[in-house]
Design a protein that fits this description.
2 copies of one chain form a homodimer. By secondary structure, chain A is of the alpha+beta class. In chain A, the strands form 8 sheets. In chain A, strands 16, 17, 20, 21, 22, 25, 26 and 27 form an 8-stranded mixed β-sheet that branches. Chain A has a 4-stranded antiparallel β-sheet with strand order 1-4-15-8. Chain A has a 4-stranded mixed β-sheet with strand order 13-12-11-14, with no helix packed on it.
Amino acid sequence: MASNKTVGAGLPEPTHTLLLSGNDVEQKRDEILNYFTQTWALYESLFDCLANERAYFTKAISLRHPLIFYFGHTATFYINKLMAAGLIEDRIDPHIEAMLAIGVDEMSWDDLDTSHYDWPALAELRDYRGKVHRRIIEFIKEMPLSLPIDWESPAWVILMGIEHERIHLETSSVLMRQLPVEWLQPQPHWPACQRARTDRTAAPENTLVSLPETTLTLGKTDDTYGWDNEYGRLDCDIKAFKASKMLVSNAEFYEFVQAGGYQDPQWWDEEGQGWLSFSKAEMPTFWVGAASKPAILKLRLLAEEVPMPWDWPVEVNQLEAAAFCRWKAEDTGKSIQLPTEAEWYVLRQQVEGDQPGWDQAPGNINLAWWASSCPVDRFPQGDFYDIVGNVWQWTTTPISGFDGFKVHPLYDDFSTPTFDGKHAIIKGGSWISTGNEALKSSRYAFRRHFFQHAGFRYVVSTHQEKLTVNPYETDLLVSQYLDFQYGPRYFNVPNYARALVDIAEQVVEKRGSALDIGCATGRASFELARTFDQVTGMDYSARFIDVALSLVRGEERRYLMPEEGELVQYCQASLSEIGITPEQAKRVQFVQGDACNLKPHSESYDLVLASNLLDRLRDPRRFLHDISAKIVSGGVLIISSPYTWLEEFTPKENWIGGVRENGEALSSYQALQRLLDGDFEEINPPLDVPFVIRETARKHQHTVAQVTVWRKR
Amino acid sequence: MASNKTVGAGLPEPTHTLLLSGNDVEQKRDEILNYFTQTWALYESLFDCLANERAYFTKAISLRHPLIFYFGHTATFYINKLMAAGLIEDRIDPHIEAMLAIGVDEMSWDDLDTSHYDWPALAELRDYRGKVHRRIIEFIKEMPLSLPIDWESPAWVILMGIEHERIHLETSSVLMRQLPVEWLQPQPHWPACQRARTDRTAAPENTLVSLPETTLTLGKTDDTYGWDNEYGRLDCDIKAFKASKMLVSNAEFYEFVQAGGYQDPQWWDEEGQGWLSFSKAEMPTFWVGAASKPAILKLRLLAEEVPMPWDWPVEVNQLEAAAFCRWKAEDTGKSIQLPTEAEWYVLRQQVEGDQPGWDQAPGNINLAWWASSCPVDRFPQGDFYDIVGNVWQWTTTPISGFDGFKVHPLYDDFSTPTFDGKHAIIKGGSWISTGNEALKSSRYAFRRHFFQHAGFRYVVSTHQEKLTVNPYETDLLVSQYLDFQYGPRYFNVPNYARALVDIAEQVVEKRGSALDIGCATGRASFELARTFDQVTGMDYSARFIDVALSLVRGEERRYLMPEEGELVQYCQASLSEIGITPEQAKRVQFVQGDACNLKPHSESYDLVLASNLLDRLRDPRRFLHDISAKIVSGGVLIISSPYTWLEEFTPKENWIGGVRENGEALSSYQALQRLLDGDFEEINPPLDVPFVIRETARKHQHTVAQVTVWRKR
């Protein structure tokens, strides 16, 4: 396989992504230097394809800056990240570094970036790139380096700059395909594949290949640079499915076009219909001509238009790919759809090794063959073709972090804005995917309407993508409570929920059922479930209950914590992190309820824990009265409160204590003794239990609650 | 002296205030029991003077409850305090104990208590008193007791109840004098003095007696129960002065009345004129008849009217006494005025011993002689008469706590509401002053328009009463800062100002001048003054500067800290408590100023400390720019901040850090390095210094500031 490699027809020797570990520091420094200069040169050489300055300064699509921005951007990125990391002290050009810092994320198709930019002249940017090039080489030569390179290494910042530039190598090549062809000039060092079947009927027929049920663990473990979203771990059980042997070719996709697929809303979901109505698309975006005249259709490549290569993979967005699948499913009666990310990994088991170890690329990837797609039956890989390479393959999976995901602090907006449920993962890489992009572990995601060098293969699968949106919780109160209940210790103060449950476990013998009333995001409920048979977590706030329920489902909750000014920290909470098993979690039932209006359940509990509840109720006396009936004789009521009475929560006439009665100070503790005296016996001296709620990186609420323990008579 | 003691004419044997210490616990228990029952019986016997129920249920004056309230009140007080202290578990009668709990403080003369009260019947209250009497005896017999009795002893609560009843013995007797005389019935066990000169010209002539300059320390140190305001310590230097040998008699005061003193506003201060115009007074309140007909004037005693005893002390409020002094000063050309509290203590040196040790009372006090005043020349005491006894003597001194004053938590509204600059101290006691009231250390104070069995003696003195109002600071922010800067440690976190000055002292060699910018209530300024020659404390808030200035003057600042709900803690701050000497304090100059608009002083400093300032400025960049010119070359700038940027204080565009710049996170520390780089060298790695600001008894802000240290180039 891969016998007639065309390198030498112009493309430079393919690069290998470098390994983070090694024994020889200076050798590694040389590797980094080479990898940097290779990437830099490759990126600049791509811009040779632009025929004129107009091509630099005109937007290819409304949602992105013109190419002049990207020409400078990859250089400014090095300087901005090195400045942010405190690794260099001086800028090269503050103006350029400010202007070319922030790209435009792909948004909805009808968003318009109407800002006016006064872009620098090309010569100015060439000069600037020269200066940055020298500065980075100097930096690489002088930076402290120890092996393996890790997140904290200065070299990681350099690798980040290199891999960032390699991403823009690909995305800029897409933007070039979207410019008028006359603004481009084909270059011998960016050669297109010459092999193509221009007779539609000659295109190979696709078939389905079966794959057995598989268990896989996703998450990067290899020894190369990765973006933060690649790390972590996800265990997957993938049911048996079938997958198309080849990517869908232009010919195969034409059947959908011919069948009026672009005109029939039934194949399109709501987002797809919206895009269709906005774009007025009638065929794939890189097709040139009219869908009704297939014989004279052309395909737009990087710098030229060629007669339609019907056996090359079709390039579409995810909306078009999904529409094709629906049509095909209807047509065949099979549950045809796009694969999940995990299903792609099942396919990927058919390909040996990974890019750093490839002697020769097993597919049209890593710029190892051409500067274009090639026939879908050109590169067999196991029982399939093009599992990697040729064009990216859309999946149904919205991108999200794996369990244990942590944001890289130096590029905290690389992944997190895409964890919005709207960005679908693409897998496999294209002909121009190099470096990290060409790795098995790489994960990129785009809005479903967006174009890349991306097509698809379909699967026959019963999978149903959980369209769970798991974005960062931005509700400040929910975030604060997640951090309070699941986050780290501050000032060495032990976890409050755990401390309260420790007390409960000392005084409650019968561990039948427990009620955690005012459970917030549920930590104490889960802690109780370690030893109680049944736990009810109740809170007035549905927002909290939703969070607790998602934790029961095994989800990881992400939240943002204010750090300093507008800067935030990305955090996560999950039951596995606190060592709660799914069985334990299942013992907890979370319900929304009002502690001041308890429903007359038949149920009563061996323990009721009311933590940080009393002084947030509008009628705490009523709660204290009603709760008695919910506790079995001999059962225990634990009340923990800092007695922070505020009229905002409790009308002053309802404060049980912290008031003057007959002119005398009546503390809340005295009031509790009086109110509970009839039904309860106080069995412990009151305890002080501290807790800390973090507000920013440096500011915290540090409170000492009083815990009183009462046994029902 | 005091040879013809009249006890036996009806008054019971005088009591002695009991000592707190002793060797025999059970003997002390008996003493307490006796003291309680004596007081209780004495109080009830006073009410024998009321002739009918109308006398119980009609208000004597609009500002106070009717006597029925006071009849029950002293009993409910025991129960309410014992409940509040958690020493008893059950009430005797919740309704009565709620209704008779709170008296009406003497207010302005035109305040009216218009509440409707449904007072209990007399028989009901008699029954109630009986129950309380039995309960308290039982309590005294059973209470844990160890010697000496202190603030925490259960016995202290009993003594509080006893002394409280003795106060009301006196104030109720005043109210009885203010009821129509026909509602009273003279009782043989409340005998008035029979000795009186009813011929005005026969009244003894007053003279002035000289007293030398004296140094005294005020503040209770004896071994008896005291109210919280008596404790603490005040060192006084009292210049030489003269004092009237006798109290001002009715005859002597008549000269002022005759001279038209009540009609001439020049003798009355503003408050006096207001009272005069409201009351339409033309002569002292207990005089009966017309000022123009002195021959037939009578004097109202407790239960009768008697022909005017011209040689008895006149009874007036402080406004009348002060008016008399002004008139007398004009008349004589001498600086006649009322004495200060300290001047009274100079006089008090002429009287040996104190009430607990008296075999026979040296004056008309402690109910040792009569149930009325007596002639002003009846009881010689040293070179004077009536330094103690006969009637209370008004001073010019507004009551306030001595240095080190602490509120007794079980009666925290006994003293503190009178620390308002409007309550003048009375000294010396009257014929009915017993128990604590009869002690040298006792301190009572009333609004200046109020009547007691009180008159005055005058002094020729150059003293000028500092009419400093030193009430409790109720501005929450000022209180929080006083506590933050001068209060105790919380969570064992060291004082923040001191911690910062420790850092300063490590890096600043030349200790010439220092600027503490954003000094708040000045703690760091004072700490700097320990080693710097000159310190400027600057703050934008005049409220803070006022506090700092008063501390420089040696004043104690009192403030309230929220404790729980509406309950507060009474706190105080002073330089002596933190070991700052007056010389050190004088090195500090406090000025109001704007850190974002620094005046171009010629001055520059060896040290500028900017603590918790940066993130509260509207333009921190300007401050960082301007401050450079204020620091000598080689001088040091210390910035301490938690970088809590809030738009409330700093418009977002002015945040120096905690922002994204060119898409990269820019921390405030990085921003500081950049902004200060030109003029400064960073000479220390940044330090984390924690601080705690208490919000309630259980809730705190716990913050970790970053301290950066910069040397001016």
